[in-house]
Design goal:
There is one protein chain. This protein is 64% helix and 6% strand. By secondary structure, the protein is mainly alpha-helical. Strands 1-2 form a two-stranded antiparallel ribbon. It has a two-stranded antiparallel sheet with strand order 3-4. Strand 1 and strand 2 (63-66) form a beta hairpin. Helix 5 packs antiparallel against helix 6. The N and C termini lie far apart (53 Å).
């Protein structure tokens, strides 16, 4: 059975984000095909997609390599997210479905429960799912796709400190959902902008200057979107 290229692409991207492949390291089709148990055809297609996304670059005499983003490129990603996530929340207030609201409210309940218990790993995953669902509720495939790609890249380039007050952070999540449920786009935008700004301050680059970054040994597929205290 032929494995779809998008499945191979997801696997390679996840491993890049997790630090399995160091920045600047070569990605040979033969070794990748062997690692993922596929032919070289889906690997070749996956590498083209990852190059378009900015995770991979093609170098003369070296072939495909993991990209080595600069500090400015990393900072630009956070700024883009700070602009786009509030836009997505405002759109969600106008376009969300009852199914979106049901999932968002369920995630808020779980997040608030886990925050009271202090389970940080669960909160990291729940925060990612919350923001993915909020983006999907915007009704814009382009916006959802862009935000998903931003989250992957930010998770690759940044480590995120544990939130100072997770209970307060999930209270903010709940306020966003309330605004979306009421169809109040401006309030949804304003709360999300503040929430995203606070979350951004908890991000720390995994590399600096011209030095090669340390290898990241633990997987982090989504950004911890938990905010900081007021």
């Amino acid at each position: 059975m032929r494995i779809p290229a998008h499945s191979v692409c997801t696997a390679i991207r996840d491993d890049i984000v997790a630090g399995v492949y160091e920045r600047g390291s070569r990605l040979t089709e033969e070794l990748l095909a062997r690692r993922y148990g596929v032919s070289r055809v889906p690997v070749r297609e996956a590498l083209r997609t990852l190059e378009a996304e900015g995770f991979v670059v093609t170098r003369r005499h070296a072939g495909a390599c993991v990209a080595e983003p600069t500090e400015q490129e990393a900072a630009d990603l956070l700024e883009m997210r700070m602009l786009l996530e509030p836009l997505g929340a405002a759109r969600a207030a106008q376009r969300r479905t009852e199914a979106h609201l049901k999932v968002l409210r369920g995630l808020v309940r779980l997040g608030q429960e886990r925050a009271r218990r202090g389970n940080s790993e669960d909160l990291r995953s729940l925060g990612g799912w919350f923001h993915e669902t909020l983006a999907q509720a915007s009704g814009s495939h382009a916006l959802t796709s862009t935000l998903t790609q931003l989250r992957h890249k930010i998770a690759w380039m940044y480590a995120v400190e544990a939130p100072a007050n997770p209970v307060e952070s999930w209270t903010e999540h709940g306020a966003i959902v309330d605004a979306v449920a009421r169809g109040d786009g401006e309030r949804a935008r304003a709360i999300t902008a503040l929430h995203t700004e606070r979350a951004t301050s908890a991000h720390r680059l995994r590399f600096s200057g011209g030095d090669r970054p340390d290898r990241v040994r633990t997987s982090q597929h989504v950004v911890n979107m938990s905010g900081l205290r007021h």
